[in-house]
Write a structure and sequence with these properties.
The protein has three helices and no strands. By secondary structure, the protein is mainly alpha-helical.
Length: 76
């Protein structure tokens, strides 16, 4: 394993890149925007969606920060 591979997961990058390309192609087919504009819009939307999901999960009562009532249910 190369030292760089510890910090960068090629498979996850390629899957995300593929999803962004397919999303951009679909968005381009539905609009008249150039491909690169659609690609940038899809990548930004994916980043915002990921940030929002992490933020929501870390809120009180979220997936990563359950309430006391929710902690008891997980132990059973």
């Amino acid at each position: 394993m190369t030292p760089f591979r510890r910090f960068f997961d090629y498979r996850a990058f390629l899957v995300g890149f593929g999803i962004a390309v397919v999303g951009a192609l679909i968005f381009r087919a539905l609009t008249s925007f150039p491909f690169w504009v659609c690609f940038v819009m899809v990548v930004v939307a994916m980043q915002l969606n990921g940030w929002l999901a992490v933020w929501e999960d870390n809120q009180p009562g979220g997936f990563n920060n359950p309430n006391a009532d929710q902690k008891d249910v997980k132990k059973r």
